[in-house]
Target: DUF3631 domain-containing protein
Amino acid sequence: MNHSDSPLKSTETPDRPGPEDGAALLNDVETFHRRYNVFPSEAAYVAVVLWDAHTHLLDAFESTPRLAFLSPEPGSGKTRALEIIDTLAPRPMLTTDVSPAALFRSVSDTEARPTVLFDEVDTTFGPKAAGNEDLRGLINSGHRRSGVVLRCVGDGNTQTVQPFPVYAALAMGGLGDLPDTIMSRSVIIRMRRRAPNEKVKPFRERTTKAEGHVLRDRLATWADSVRDQLTDTWPEMPDGISDRPADVWEPLLAVADAAGGDWPERARAACVHLVTAAKANDKGSLGIRLLADLRDIFNGAERMLSTELLSKLAGLDDAPWADLDGKVITARALARMLGDYVTADNDPIKPRNIKTGPKSSAKGYYATDLADAWLRYCPPRPPRVQESATAATSATAQVRALFPVADTPEVADTDPMPDAPAATAP
Model:
């Protein structure tokens, strides 16, 4: 179905009798977005429409996902996306700058709680901005219905600590990425500039807002009709969606299920697509990226020299290792980063001596030392053919199970040197 070609039903039959058709309503909201917004994927349209609807049902859910429109360059449609949401959400508060105190006072008023639309958020959390830890903490706490912040009230010795609710819907637009803790609570839409063949209708505040307000009122009416059935519901998650991504998507999938039509199927496809894309674009942990790249480089080898690892890391085209803080990754940097992780025996991962000849050795890493970190932090690899019970209990089998193909180690001598404390790599 081409939603962009279908007219808005609300303009044809504004006084239609009977209950609102949830699926048709969401179709109309999608049509409205498509008139003014160019999103990067079908999944993005689905997610944004469901987010619009969920803002009218906040108290039916345990959490509210943050919606983040991010792009590498300005002029990518982030502000326009927020402007359209501004016409659809209840009590919208569109801003480009807000202090922790102002945001706290706004969202702690549960009777007049706004939908916060925070544009140019990169100026608050970007690399050139101050830490803004109070604001970050407030945004994170407001993700859950149980979220509160503590404030002292009263005068002098009569002050008492009082919790204030900060649960509120929040959408953001900005350049680059956001702090890890906010990203993990967000549906992330990676915006891009419109291509010459991608046309949108000009935004005119007077007429566009009137259009959006008709849909906003319909969303509010429909929300009232399904609120009881959605309260504390637990929608079925797609395979592989759990933990924090499940928290983020539960309200949106619940809205889709209540709307019916093809929205439940579209919502789950969008969930998988956007969660997978978020993981693929995750730049939050350089350490996890390092572990994943090392796992690919080892590819079944039992040990590798540091010099070889550094060369292969620097040769990866789509990786930061050739330009890490302005220079190629060094053995010292590699050792420092891996030292933050531990082996299965809970010892820090360190370079060890590896024989390179009868009387020579060099520093390197053993796959058995990295295996536990790979299992804990890296996405699973395709399963291998089942090995014998005896072999499966060995450290080598644990390492090999991570890889679809086991290559012959490329070191000269397969016998490790006696276990001796390894010096820090130079």
About this structure: Residues 205-230 form the longest helix (26 residues). Confidence is low (pLDDT under 50) at residues 4-14, 385-393, 405-426.
